[in-house]
Automatic annotation (TrEMBL), chains A, B:
Organism lineage string: Bacteria, Bacillati, Bacillota, Bacilli, Bacillales
Domain HTH lacI-type: 4-58
Keyword set, alphabetical order: DNA-binding, Transcription, Transcription regulation
Keyword Transcription (UniProt): yes
Organism of derivation: Paenibacillus rhizovicinus
Domain of life, source organism: Bacteria
GO-annotated molecular function: DNA-binding transcription factor activity; transcription cis-regulatory region binding
Identification of the protein by name: LacI family transcriptional regulator
Keyword Protein biosynthesis assigned: no
Cited SUPFAM superfamilies: lambda repressor-like DNA-binding domains, Periplasmic binding protein-like I
DNA sequence: GTGAAAGCGCTAACAG
DNA sequence: CTGTTAGCGCTTTCAC
């Protein structure tokens, strides 16, 4: 099972390893006849140069590490697809590190992030892209931020939709505030005045941003926000159901529209509403945020803010490539504007008696 | 930006590199005092041993390559999560190769598979796991199968839900025929006699298997299958809509139940049915296959055959680990039985006049 | 316990 | 055009 090396090829071709290396990388002219002889042997033995040895000396591996919290959340595969599309052209390959947060306590998750960060460093990846986890924290503990800052000194680092205090990082982000604002304005434009906001976590910056946009839109329209109608508690369908259920169970007036922190919560909210005997959007309008394909698959199809996942991925790959190839003036911050996608889950409020 | 090496540590600690290596791997006893001195320096410089150099000599990288056709299809992240869960314990990390088939012509996809296979070999991964693509073909062209057989000689290879002619491969599969049969029997048990089957591709073995199970269940119940009601054409929500639309537009009798080749098609079918003014399951029952979380998110929730994606992933990781650690008697074939998940999209047929 | 030295498989000067 | 040689950073005999 001994694998063949440049030496084996060289010997059989009666040349030196240098020449073999030359045809492999065509890094210098080689006489046509010897080149063909060597190429023939390469094919004959299906010779594959050992990338480890090559990377060891060239100090580049063509590998990009990706750290994300949960591949099972459809947002991430979507971003990943964008990353792959762009990075493949440049010849990069991906190291996928899923911290598997979905069934983990939060501290364990951050520990895994640290572990993976170190593993990626040891594997000599050319760059690391982070999504979710600690970079999503509205206020990240100093120690955890510092660790990442240290790593940023050793290898190119790009954040997608996140940030960390205490240092400057390269980031590709969607404008969360604009997203929250636009979706709320859509509802207000439809005639809604009593609007709730559910989902997410108050300690996460995406939630904070979306909520801030929501408040801004309400304020601009001269509407007051019912603090009772603001609820947090997660990003899953199940959590969406729970929060919506709670909202519907409340005494007194009901909102005529609900802004959900993401699509999964939006879907859960629709389910809870339907279960409570309401019709969406006739009785209540519901919106999501993310724009994952899933949102177009439910009935009624979810009106949402597309976070343009694919482009987010592509942009990040682009920034990473610039960083790796040491281009001058790489933008520290790339901001994308989300896109309102109006579908079937929103309509004017039921007319009041 | 020069990174520190064992030599730097050794010099400053006044020991040889061998000793540093010993404390790094504790591969031999080292005097407590020198060990501490060295450990101190390691911490001080945040020294990370270069995994490339290490792998070069140890001939193992702890990396497993994964080749899959489309990370955007929720089936794959689910399997991936299972893989990760199991493989993390063993200290493996993943190389993700998405051939991005969703927006590719089919030939291009196979070419990418070949490319990735080669890249993974060069990167010296300890093993390769394949999902989808050519291993899903009912009849894979000889050349394409042979290429994979060659690779199987050089590095451990595991297929998830697939196979290739001309050689023996290690495989972890779900019993597709049983799946098709069980879901059909569920419908028959409910009283359905007029059942359609839509989705998938006739050249793919999963479709062939599911359809075979469908036919077997029908035959066992003494029911005849309407060949007109068997339609193929893909695995996406959109395709499901199209196929279901076609079915509903047909002259003559209508089926009272539809077995869909996967969950996405099932969701598309529900959408088409609802759009046509039918109620699911009152007027028509619809089932899926896959058991992705999404299937539980739609309204009505989709009755489906769970392919037990997580376990599929875990089993594959387990088999791979055995292969890598050269355990004796690794099972060539691991078969899981799918699980019927009854939800809301199936009910007895409407009573006839 | 510890050090010297020989590679792992490849690339990159530097000579010819 | 081509060969010689010195490493990349680490592990691992084999001595001491």
């Amino acid at each position: 099972m001994k694998s063949v090396t440049v030496y084996d090829i060289a010997k059989e071709a009666n040349v030196s390893v240098a020449t073999v290396s030359r045809v492999l990388n065509n890094t210098a002219p080689v006489k046509a006849s010897t080149r063909e002889r060597i190429q023939g042997l390469i094919n004959k033995y299906q010779f594959q140069p050992n990338a480890l040895a090559r990377s060891l000396i060239k100090k580049e591996t063509g590998m990009i590490g990706i750290i994300l919290p949960d591949i099972t959340n459809p947002f991430f595969p979507e971003v990943l697809a964008g990353l792959e599309q762009e990075a493949r052209k440049q010849g990069y390959t991906f190291f996928l590190c899923d911290t598997g947060s979905s069934n983990l306590d939060i501290k364990e998750q951050y520990k895994r992030e640290s572990q993976y960060l170190n593993i990626l460093l040891e594997k000599q990846v050319d760059g690391i892209i982070m999504l979710g986890g600690r970079i999503d924290l509205h206020k990240c503990p100093k120690e955890m931020a510092k660790e990442v800052a240290e790593i940023n000194k050793r290898v190119p680092l790009v954040f997608i939709n996140g940030n960390l205090p205490g240092a400057k990082f390269h980031r590709v982000v969607i404008d969360e505030v604009a997203g929250g604002r636009m979706v709320t304005e859509h509802l207000i434009g439809l005639g809604h005045r009593d609007i709730a906001f559910i989902g997410g976590y108050p300690q996460m910056s995406n939630t904070v941003g979306r909520l801030e946009g929501f408040r801004a839109a309400m304020a601009d329209a001269g509407l007051t926000v019912h603090e009772d109608w603001i609820d947090h508690g997660g990003f899953s369908v199940q959590r969406g159901k729970n929060m919506m259920g709670r909202l519907l169970d409340m005494e007194g007036d009901r909102p005529t529209a609900v802004v959900c922190a993401n699509d999964l919560v939006g879907i859960g909210a629709i389910k809870a509403a339907v279960k409570a005997g309401l019709q969406v959007p006739r009785d209540i309008s519901i919106t999501g945020v993310d724009g994952v394909p899933l949102a177009a698959s439910v009935i009624p199809e979810l009106t949402t803010m597309s976070l343009r996942c694919l482009e987010l991925g592509r942009s990040a790959a682009f920034v990473m490539h610039q960083l790796i190839s040491k281009s001058a003036d790489v933008n520290l911050l790339t901001t994308l504007t989300p896109e309102l996608t109006i579908r079937e889950s929103t309509a004017p409020p039921p007319s009041r008696k």
